[in-house]
Design goal:
about 65% helix, mainly alpha, 4 helices, about 0% strand, single chain
Amino acid sequence: MQKLEYNGWTNYETWNFKLWADNDERTYKKVQKLVKDINLADELRTLAEDEAPELKTSFYSDVINASIKEVNYLEIAKSYLEPYTPAPVGGGE
């Protein structure tokens, strides 16, 4: 399939989604929440990597590093942000 650029985006479909995501208030708010979740997830990943002790190369350091990479930082970020997320008005989204 040939990729065609559209208004600076990969294709029409991508551009159209972005257009609607930015211009529909409910969708825009959801997108902004996702952005916050992802930024916090990245910061948590960086924190875990920065706080990791210096270990000499070994089986144990490989296992520890592999374990750190398996952490679902996005899930953790969402749990931290949940208390600050307002409940939907009107019983639904």
